[in-house]
Amino acid sequence: MKRLFLILSVVFCISCASSDSNDENSEILTNDFPNYVDSNDLRIFARKGVSNIFLTNVGLAYNEMFTQIADQTMRNEYLLTSKNKYVFQRVGVDGMSADGTPPKPYADNATDYIWELKSGAAEQIGEVIEHLLHTVTAVVMYLTYSDWDYKNTSSQLYLAMREAVDKGIYDISSYDNLKGSNDYNRIITQEYAYWLILAEWDYYVVTSKKESGMTGNGEFTIGTPSEVESNLPLGHKLYKDYIEKILSVPEKDKIKLLFP
Asked: Fewest C-beta in 10 Å: which of 117, 133, 214, 247?
């Protein structure tokens, strides 16, 4: 009953379509992406094989990031960018190829897939939250605010990332194979922003990202809001100036209900 109430309480923010629908949106669907949901001006496309409940719950998880407002102007700027730039998220089933062509006018403004896993609970929650946050930071925030320009080594995002690297908190050595590529700065800042927000939300345990003996993990060693505030003043300021003003901290119990 609690799960049903959760879905009904926020479903007004989400619209759905499928290849069988006769509404005005059905023309934009493709064989690669025969289904989608809309949540807070983000179109979430699903590949064939993704269950309808999982697709719906990804939309509901994203909606949980918008339940409270700190700065209405910044929230509106964010949503307008997402809508006008046709930002989208792809969802697939674990094991399938990461390809597929989105329908026009959706083209380039996306990052990676969210995979529907055979297992649920913390591993699935981690998969969903991580890649939604990649879309938030590396796409919508990047397109909206110059402080989130990962190509600019003087941007607030890049300097905050360097702070964590220089203090030995964020280990970027696993991305060395990307050095010299156009993707390098995007990836290292994208992953940094994800870990930073996860720590500020105190979400390492619920997403199964905490390793034994530390609050964080081998890539990002701290995992609590107080540690970020004490150790990463530039990162904490970035979070306070932008993320906290635009997004809400998703309620953990609601997220757990979506991905049991």
From this structure: 214
* Of 78, 94, 124, the domain-final residue: 124
* Residue 226 in domain: yes
Each residue's pLDDT tens digit, 83-140: 999 999 999 999 999 988 889 999 999 999 999 999 889 999 999 999 999 999 999 9
In sequence order, which ranges of 85-224 are alpha helices (DSSP H)? 121-135, 142-144, 156-166, 184-200
Cα–Cα distance measured from residue 104 to residue 145, given in angstroms and rounded to the nearest whole number = 25
Same domain, 66 and 170: no
pLDDT, tens digit, 9 for 90 and up, residues 213-258: 999 999 999 999 999 999 999 999 999 999 999 999 999 999 999 9
Q: Residues 105, 166: one domain? A: no
pTM of the model: 0.90
Domain housing 194: 145-249
Those residues whose C-beta lies under 8 Å from the C-beta of residue 253, and which sit 6 or more positions away, are none
Tokens found for residue 172: 């970027």
Q: Largest alpha-carbon pair distance within the chain?
A: 56
